[in-house]
Design brief:
alpha/beta; Rossmann fold; five-stranded parallel sheet; two-stranded antiparallel ribbon; 14 helices; 44% helix
Length: 404
Amino acid sequence: MYREYFDLEELPFSIAPDPRYLFMSEQHREALAHLIYGFNGNGGFVLLTGEVGTGKTTVCRCFLEQIPKDSAIAFIINPKLTVDELLATICDEFGLQYPASNAGIKVLVDLINAHLLEVHAKGKRAVLIIDEAQNLSSDVLEQLRLLTNLETNHAKLLQIILLGQPELRDKLSKPELRQLSQRIIARYHLGPLSEKDVTAYIVHRLTVAGLKKRIRRQLFTGPAIRKLYKLSGGVPRLINVLCDRAMLGTFAQGRKEVGKSTLTKAAHEVFGNNGFNHPYQKTVVRLLMIITPLIVGAALMTTYYIQGGPNEPEHKAVDGAIAASATAPGYDNNKGPYRHDFIFPWLSADYYGDNIPGNMEPMEHTDKQLPILPGSQLPPEANPVSRYESATDVNKIQLPEGLK
């Protein structure tokens, strides 16, 4: 609907893998170079991986336009097949006829081998391209490896290109597929666009769509492009969807440029109410959900122990008993009792020996000095604080009349 409004020859942000719209970023140029190198090699596998929507299929379509037109091409886009179904599909793509009643593996492989020898005799190349290859089973991958055994004394007869998501790399790293992995002669991983590339990407697609040169760089404002990069993470397919919806919204508003607010509304329509739906933002949200409870828990535990922890009431009771004992006759307030988990109202040099703390002197008694240990017995006349078993018994302490 907005094509005529913006004076465009065609819609610029279709998600179809049209090679005319392929923006040659440094990464996409490198990916294309790997495919061409593999095609001109002596056979084996070429591996092109990338996240969803980064342009793998579009790069491959561009690759097909640059190889000789008489090349034998088999392009499989639905690889969820058994071994028999895969071989039958390859025969269909090469235009080979096979008996429906007797289409066993040997029959199909023989047909493919005969066709590849014929193609090679004519000086041509045969290429098998499998998209969404991360869905291939291990058995099918092994059969593909066996197809690369079809060769002459000088060259392989079949070149296989695998396009897939990052899971494909993980699958090919398994020990049972190491023989296939060793036959990969070129591999490349295609990542998202940078923020700088996003601007050039938009201008490129508007140019191909026929937008007038004087307004190509003015249609999307700077804040809108920065917002677009944050929302899409640089993934071309998400950029296309968001830009298409934003241009439709701009047309509905009767404006001539796509602003940040319009793009934000478009994101809510595309992604839902969250407006943040690409994999990188989901990962951040998951990490925050895990880390936040840990941080809160650590803060609570720190506060808990700084304030005294579970034994704070017992410590207060013990401190109260010490204060009470300090009023006993002859007690020197400047030489308060030494406390170490228990209250020792009278301490003697016999208890410490030669290791008396520097800030404490033993108290002098008129009759005799007694070594005081936790739980030890003192004569009633020398012990104004009765013996207790633990700090929880402090409330049961009986003080003499002179200390009350």
